[in-house]
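Structure ticket #2291
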Amino acid sequence: MNDIIKKNQELVNKLLVFIRIKNLENYNTPLHFKENDADAKEFMQQHNENYKAVSNALNTCYKAGYFNKAGIPVNFSGHPYFMAVSLTREGLEKAEELSNPGQTSQGIVVVGDGNIIGNNNIKIENFFNYLINEINKSSADEAEKKGLIAKIESIMNSPFVCSIVNGLASGLSSNLK
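Resolution: structure written out below.
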């Protein structure tokens, strides 16, 4: 029995990290875990697991409060599945802890609809990378593109902007406690 519980907890941990990464890569787009959904298939393939084991791990995550309410299990033809799965603050913190074992807290703060503020923030980095890619794909001349990218770099490295984000994050984290 202990082996089953241990295996489920290991799968829960893998699932939280998987959802965190997918949510950040896809700008917090909720995932779907019906047996034949792409997200479920990808996770099962990556971890060589069957849907019953994944479903048990999803239920454990849900009961532990790691999923937002939209991720409530739905019964479809007698088979429960999870749709629109995204992580709660607790789920994000647990996934961050699992992703960076032994490191100090990243100062994650979840604001409003799941937007994340914090240092080493993949979502903010993805946003700036998106802007740079769009600039590079645009029809503007090279000098204009370089000028815009230089402005983005100066914004990203500005002590003023960094202090505003840090102040906002610390103020919000104290208000959320």
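Closing remark: The first strand starts at residue 31 and ends at 33.
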